[in-house]
Design brief:
By secondary structure, the chain is of the alpha+beta class. Helices cover 35% and strands 27% of the residues. Strand 15 and strand 16 form a beta hairpin.
């Protein structure tokens, strides 16, 4: 089909939405991004961009811009919660075997995508909140101010609470996983190593890694508990609650948590993968189609992959319907596997029964020392898959 000159509306100015807008604009489409916020500001926290996600950024022409704003990762270190003893080390060195693994602040990645999108002619309209999407051969987007905008294609990249998803699918209530997560940024405590530090404890785990040249440390702490917490990054919590929940973790964790002044808490809910990703000339992308728990650090990477594949399918199919069907077909099995593996990781990190935890850690130590390539090799299906080269 001829995509050049097509009018495309992207709902949502996050990572997936901006990546899709950039990819589609590079193919000659006239793209408008509708973002409900008053500004695309310094929001969010850290992201891990794994090789599969970086391949998309590279193909979009953002290699240098992203590298300039990020830190090249070296390793993932699994540690015991109480004494910080090393359980296993996974080599994620940037440049090894052509891999590229980086830590970046979400706002810095959004800034890279936004700048590139605008340079290609993408129109970004702030304070444009979508009220309704009417799907048809010529879909219509109705804004809360009453304005109606027509397009050849509407892309719903508006996250967990997408306004387009319920138009394409029956509403399905999410299920609370019995886990909550705190997220915070703190100033560097000492010389920052470009490592993911993952402290594993009974019913809890805590992840840290540096950002912005090591000036900041990103902290994500997850706890199993019966009490439900609201979903979404915007809910603030008392840092003392975080400190109490991890009071039995090692002294270096305690030192880090004492520096937390502002923290956000959100409940982790399991949303089903959408059954229908498209209808007529409207399509879902990223969390709007397949919300992903954070235990594999793949939410942003899957959105980047979606964006590239969607644009590729639209550029190489005879009709829009064929393109959208191919897009869902190429993406659904992969994101379902990511979601399944991510869910299992939480269980592995949170072993409660001491003998089981000791045995599991002993096995990890053995493999890490005797066959370190095996630990990373189990993720080849994820990190070495390059959607810019596979169809």
């Amino acid at each position: 089909m001829r995509i050049s000159g097509k009018k495309i509306i992207v709902i949502g100015g996050g990572i997936g939405g901006l990546a899709a807008a950039l990819a589609l604009s590079r193919l000659g489409a006239a793209v408008t991004v509708l973002e409900q916020a008053a500004e695309i500001s310094d929001m969010g926290a850290g992201l891990q961009i794994s090789p599969n996600g970086f391949a998309v950024l590279d193909a979009l022409g953002l290699r240098d811009a992203v590298i300039d704003r990020s830190m090249a990762a070296t390793s993932l270190v699994l540690r015991n919660y109480s004494d910080s003893a090393t359980v296993a080390t996974l080599d994620i060195s940037t440049g090894k075997d052509g891999q590229n693994y980086y830590f970046i602040h979400r706002a810095d990645l959004v800034a890279c995508l936004l700048s590139a999108a605008r340079q290609t002619g993408v129109q970004v309209r702030l304070q444009h909140k979508v009220k309704q999407v009417q799907t048809s051969v010529i879909p219509q987007v109705v804004l809360t101010n009453g304005q109606t905008i027509m397009a050849d294609l509407v892309v719903g990249a508006d996250g967990l609470h997408s306004c387009l998803r319920p138009v394409l699918n029956q509403t399905a209530a999410p299920r609370f996983t019995g886990q909550v997560a705190w997220r915070a940024l703190v100033p560097r405590q000492s010389q920052a190593l470009a490592q993911v530090q993952l402290y594993m404890g009974p019913g809890r785990h805590l992840v840290t890694y540096p950002l912005r040249g090591g000036q900041l440390v990103n902290v994500v702490a997850v706890q199993e508990r019966a009490n439900w917490a609201a979903e979404g990054w915007q809910h603030r919590d008392d840092p003392q609650n975080l400190r109490r929940a991890f009071a039995d973790f090692s002294p270096d964790v305690q030192a880090l948590l004492r520096s937390v002044d502002n923290v956000h808490l959100w409940g982790l809910l399991r949303h089903p993968v959408a059954r229908n990703w498209y209808q007529d000339h409207a399509v879902l992308l990223g969390d709007a189609a397949h919300p992903t728990l954070p235990f594999l650090a793949q939410g942003a990477n899957m959105a980047l992959e979606d964006a590239w594949v969607l644009a590729d399918c639209l550029a190489n199919a005879e009709t829009t319907n064929t393109a959208l069907a191919r897009y869902q077909s190429r993406r659904e099995r992969r994101v379902r596997r990511v979601i399944a593996v991510s869910g299992r990781n939480a269980w592995k990190y949170h072993l409660r029964f001491p003998p089981l935890r000791l045995a599991a850690h002993a096995a990890l130590r053995f493999v890490s020392r005797q066959a370190p390539q095996h630990l990373m090799g189990q993720f080849d299906w994820l990190y070495k898959h390059d959607v810019t080269k596979h169809r």
